[in-house]
Design goal:
The protein is of the alpha+beta class. Helices cover 29% and strands 17% of the residues. The strands form two sheets. A five-stranded antiparallel sheet has the order 4-3-2-1-5, with no helix packed on it. Strands 6-7 form a two-stranded antiparallel sheet. A hairpin with a 3-residue loop joins strand 2 and strand 3. Helix 2 crosses helix 3. The chain is globular and about 45 Å long. The termini are far apart.
């Protein structure tokens, strides 16, 4: 599961994919059917990357990615609008060691709704690129084929001096 580049924006519903970065923030595209574009200003908007989100656990925090993987193998997923007790029972199944005092019903609703948005996307089944795999990729052929002669700066001709007429 590759959640790299997927963010949640405070004050905006749904999930967004980071397309590019500019001086003041990020250019985002919604993951819903509308494909709405948004420029998120870093001074006013708060972005949360899904690959970095964790849920409070009793011993240690649980990565959202791990919860999504367990949800993927679960028999049935409750509706995000279900009551808190139904969601709590479901969360005991997919995240048995979550801290029940710190994880609220609103958090569980958000996780279930995010899962429903992501489960049908191709990136959900895609493996993330690791740092080792990207280091092993071959250098682009066009870069590798440039010779030292091509990289030397070209000599400039000195401007011709004009003789002054008296």
């Amino acid at each position: 599961m590759n959640l790299h580049g997927i963010v949640a924006v405070s004050g905006k519903p749904g999930l967004w994919k980071a397309l590019a970065q500019n001086k003041t923030g990020f250019i985002l595209e919604s993951l819903d059917d509308n494909k709405t574009k948004l420029v998120a200003n870093l001074s006013t908007a708060k972005l949360a990357a899904l690959d970095e989100i964790t849920i409070f656990g009793e011993d240690e925090d649980i990565k959202l990615k791990d919860i999504f993987e367990r949800m993927n193998s679960a028999k049935s997923i409750p509706d995000p609008k279900a009551d808190g007790n139904t969601l709590r029972v479901f969360f005991r199944e997919v995240a048995p060691d979550h801290d029940e005092e710190k994880v609220y019903a609103s958090d569980m609703k958000k996780v279930v709704s995010w899962y429903n948005l992501l489960k049908d996307l191709p990136l959900f089944t895609e493996e993330p690129k690791s740092a080792e795999a990207s280091a092993e990729e071959p250098v682009s052929e066009t870069v590798a084929e440039t010779s030292a002669e091509e990289t030397k700066p070209k000599a400039r001709k000195a401007p011709a001096k004009t003789a002054k007429k008296k």
